[in-house]
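As agreed, record copied across for absentees:
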Amino acid sequence: MAAIDTGTQHLLADLDTGVLTLTLNRPEARNAMSGAMTAALADQLAKAELDPEVKVVVVTGAGKGFCAGGDVKGMDESNQGGAGASIDAAIHRQRVNQRATAGRLFKMPKPTLAALPGPAAGAGLSLALACDMRIMASSAILTTAFARVGFSGDYGGTYFLTQLVGSAKARELYYLSERVSAEEALRLGLANWVVEPEALAAKTREIALRLAGGPTVAYRYMKENLNRAMSGEVDDCLDLEATHHVHCGQTTDHKEAARAFVEKREPVFIGR
C-alpha cells in the first residue's frame, strides 16, 4: 500500500493493487466538507482519471460517518462575517467544485465505489450517489437534509437521486428530509450491499479488488453506455453500444476471456 500526500489531513489517500481509496477525514465534524477537503478531492480524482495504475476509486469516511455534507457551522460563521465574494463568483466556484468532484466520480471512465460506515447527508449523500455503487454498514443512514438548513441541494443529488428512485420518491426525500435506513436504501436501490459495520472494510475490498482485476477497457465503455442511457434517445444508445461492443471485441482482454471460456478457467485481464 502506498500512501499519497493530498496536501491536507482533511483527505487521506492510498493506492493498493489498483484500488485508490480516498478517505474524507474530519471525524470530529462527521467528515463535513471543508475547502481544503473539496480541493484535495478534486485534485486526486483528476489525477486518478488519467493514472493507468488506478483501476477503481473508493470513497469512504473516517470514524463512524461517511460525510455530513457542507460544514453548516462554518456556513454560520461565514454568514456572520459580512460580505464575501460576489454571487456570480460564488456560483461559478460552486459549479467548478461540483463538476470536479461529484461530476468526475460519475463520469470518469473507471468504476467508483462509495463505502458508508455511517451517515451520508446533504452533499455527502450526493457524493455517495455520484459513485457507480454503494456499500453501506447496517447502522448507516441517508438523508438529503437540505430542507432542514434552507438549501435546495447541490453536488448533483437531485439528478442522481431522481435517476435511482424516480421523481416522486426523490421529491419526497428532498422536501421532507427524512432519514433512510440502510435496509430501506437497499430496497430502494440506493445501496447495492448492506453489511454489518465490522464487515464493511472487507466487503469493500472484495468488490474493489474484483473491479480492479476486471476488463478496464470494457468497463470504460460500459460506464459511458450506462450514463448515456440515463438521458439518451434509444437509437443513440443502440449506436453507441454497437461502436463500443465491436471495439471491445478487438481487445486482448476479450480474446483472453474467450480463450478462458473454452479452457474452462477464469480469465486474467490486463486492461488492453
Remarks:
- The chain has a mean pLDDT of 92.
- The two ends are 24 Å apart (CA to CA).
- The CA atoms of residues 48 and 54 lie 6 Å apart.
